[in-house]
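The data layer described in this paper is built around a simple, fixed record for each protein. Because each token names a local backbone shape, the row as a whole describes the fold. We quote a single record here, exactly as it is kept in our systems:

***
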Amino acid sequence: MTIVKPSQFSFSGGGSSPLCSLKGSLLTVAILTFVSLFYLSLNSMRTSPPSPVIVVTPIHVPHTFVNEDKTDNDDGAAPTTEEDTYSDVYHSPEAFRLNYAEMEKRFKVYIYPDGDPNTFYQTPRKVTGKYASEGYFFQNIRESRFRTLDPDEADLFFIPISCHKMRGKGTSYENMTVIVQNYVDGLIAKYPYWNRTLGADHFFVTCHDVGVRAFEGSPLLIKNTIRVVCSPSYNVGFIPHKDVALPQVLQPFALPAGGNDVENRTTLGFWAGHRNSKIRVILARVWENDTELDISNNRINRATGHLVYQKRFYRTKFCICPGGSQVNSARITDSIHYGCIPVILSDYYDLPFNDILNWRKFAVALREQDVYNLKQILKNIPHSEFVSLHNNLVKVQKHFQWNSPPVKFDAFHMIMYELWLRHHVIKY
């Protein structure tokens, strides 16, 4: 754009009056002012205004918090008065504290009443053994404050069908699939709640790997519902942001919890078990005869002594936890209970409570291909880091234990917290 010079607008002539000269000057000033303002306005549209400076005040996240309950909680557990340190084991301790408190006050789950408890519904087969987590959840949900008998106030709906009971009664996988499908079809036809979200606010719980396969017979269950399972392998359909990893806990534990005993742990690493997976075969073949790693090809025979297997955990720094027929293993929670730092050797495993707990603060997570360098990796961990891992491990033991009735922060409450986090994304 060309700016017109003042000389182009000059008025000349000796016969001009002073009034004309004054008018000409004023006109010239007006034109120059208009052109200048127009030019500035045009230039300002070409240049973005500076961004405002936003000052973010840092939020202080406390390293500790104390449970302020002065009376027993609704689940019958004794009040917790000791100070718990969370900064080393939680991704966000303050967020966990606040969300957990809100969950306890507001979260409600409706259990469908349909199905004969003497067959495959409503009640667990048992609350012992390596599938105890499924049984405990079925029992705990009825003992807890979270259950509601009014479906209209429910945040989520529990489908109470137990594949562990089916397995115990000798039901074939094919029949399991039919039984699950018929049960869910009956709920859909009888109640309006499924159709509001196509099952997105429904969940089921199964720890047996056959149970996972049985539910896979219904595509809607896999795609829409929240699956709480013990074998959360995200390369075969597990969806971490939707589904929940259920810890496989072998209860009751044979011996008391270990911990705060690092001076007694003189063995570098320990594993004993069946070679029922590729990674276990490699682990046994490479390290079975090693003098620093205690690796046994088979489960320790009871004839060698009373609770010899469990006592090995007390003497070991790092307990090797390779995946078995599935990615999960009850050996992980055994290690946590006995104070032995778990070494996860299982690819595609979404660890329990992984979005809440920082596993790297109390465990060692390796790729399966790292098995060949296992001893050197463990030996390279400084003693100070080992002590830190061990101390943090003691802090999380309560999260991997089931109780009846349930106790605050135990495995049941952590699963409920995971469900609580997921219910917020349900829209209907």
